[in-house]
Amino acid sequence: MKETKSNILSAAINLFNESGFGNVRLQHIADYADMSIGNLAYHFATKQDILENIYKSIVKEQRELIAELNLVPLFENLDRHWENAFKMQLKYAFFYQDTLEIVRYSETIRNGYQEHIIWEKEQFVRLLQFNVSRGALVPIDTTEETILKAEQLWLIENSYLYRSMLSASKVKNASEFKDYMWMALRPHFSEIGKQEYEQLIKFKLIPL
Fold first, then answer.
1. Residue 189 φ then ψ, to 5°
2. How many CB atoms lie within 10 A of CB 67?
């Protein structure tokens, strides 16, 4: 039964990514998973049930990525985090491209995602504070400005696929995504931060 549920969720993710969340019906998912609609409904009664199960996986993977980064949020680890975040966004592309539609569709997800956004921004605040304290970033004048910078980082990270879709530009690779993120931090580099960043470039860990 667990394998069947996993196959259904994988089918749904693929279809949501290909066609957009709003364009997919249960029958499409059943056909893609090569099963009857009755068999699918035995495991997931509605599309909302499927969506909310997928959402649980998204949040779980996001929290795992950020928890791993928070152990030692040095520039090298931050760059690796953004690469993994990009891969995860491709895996669940529909969620990042259809976010507004999804949160309007499911009150459960809307409430949970609002809380999750607050939590994610708090992690960015901690990341900034850590790198200021170790001398890699120059001090940010006020707590309010730190919060605004954290919100900017969150917005850039979570809107990349949406912006690409709106502008009809091709999603390229993790390097482009990471460069967007680093551009937001570069103005805040201290001399130590600049040297650390240049070392990452030297060893070709991040884009020029």
1. -65, 135
2. 10
